[in-house]
């Protein structure tokens, strides 16, 4: 893999990510009704494929995983994140954790974080949700494994204080 090709591939991935973000920006009232959910996801997947081309074949799964992630957030459904675990190279557990966390923050529901089996990543989900939404109840669910070197009550209390001070979305 040549350095120039690597830079080109990374640039294309960044551009694909920007296209995904722009493509899933809120539309004008009524415009969203004209497009079906399926067509938005299909458009994203087609754009992903086209933007990466032959040189990006090794990261195509990540790009497609980004489409599913964006779809899950747009639909406010953590169930849509499951495809990231089911499809090879769609982001794996890390992509799943990010997807579930983003949905949990959007819907402001810390119980969605319970879907994440890894206790450290579940703790990250709960901490981020508490900080971004001010929902201090999320702090009480941070698992002990999240911080093995510090007493969990100290971690939970710090989370609660930061959530109370944080600006709300």
Give a description of the structure.
With 169 residues, the protein is mainly alpha-helical. Helix content is 65%, strand content 0%. It is built from nine helices and no strands. The chain has helices at residues 3-23, 31-34, 37-52, 60-75, 83-86, 92-107, 119-133, 137-140, 152-165. Helix 7 packs parallel to helix 9 (152-165).
Task: Please specify the SSE layout and strand pairing.
Elements: H1 3-23, H2 31-34, H3 37-52, H4 60-75, H5 83-86, H6 92-107, H7 119-133, H8 137-140, H9 152-165
Helix pairs in contact: 1-3, 1-4, 3-4, 4-6, 6-7, 7-9
In short:
The protein is mainly alpha-helical and 169 residues long.
User: How would a crystallographer describe the biggest sheet?
Assistant: none
| Counted beta strands | 0
- Helix count from the secondary structure assignment: 9
- Give the CA-based shape: elongated
End-to-end span in angstroms? 43 Å
Strand proportion, as a percent range, falls in under 5%
Portion in helices: 55-70%
H-E string: HHHHHHHHH
Integer-rounded radius of gyration: 18 Å
Low-confidence stretches: 18-31
Mean pLDDT: 78
Structural class computed from helices and strand pairing: mainly alpha
């Amino acid at each position: 893999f040549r350095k120039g090709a690597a830079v080109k591939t990374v640039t294309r991935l960044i551009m694909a990510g920007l296209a995904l973000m722009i493509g899933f920006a809120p539309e004008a009232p009524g415009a969203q009704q004209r497009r079906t959910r399926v067509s938005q996801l299909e458009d994203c997947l087609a754009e992903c494929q086209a933007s990466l081309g032959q040189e990006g074949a090794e990261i195509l799964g990540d790009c497609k995983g980004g489409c599913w992630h964006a779809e899950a957030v747009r639909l406010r459904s953590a169930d849509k994140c499951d495809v990231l675990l089911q499809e090879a190279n769609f982001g794996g557990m890390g992509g799943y954790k990010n997807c579930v966390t983003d949905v949990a923050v959007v819907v402001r529901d810390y119980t969605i974080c319970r879907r994440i089996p890894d206790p450290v990543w579940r703790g990250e989900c709960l901490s981020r949700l508490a900080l971004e939404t001010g929902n201090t109840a999320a702090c009480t669910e941070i698992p002990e494994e999240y911080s093995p070197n510090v007493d969990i009550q100290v971690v939970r209390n710090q989370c609660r204080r930061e959530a109370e001070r944080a600006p709300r979305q």
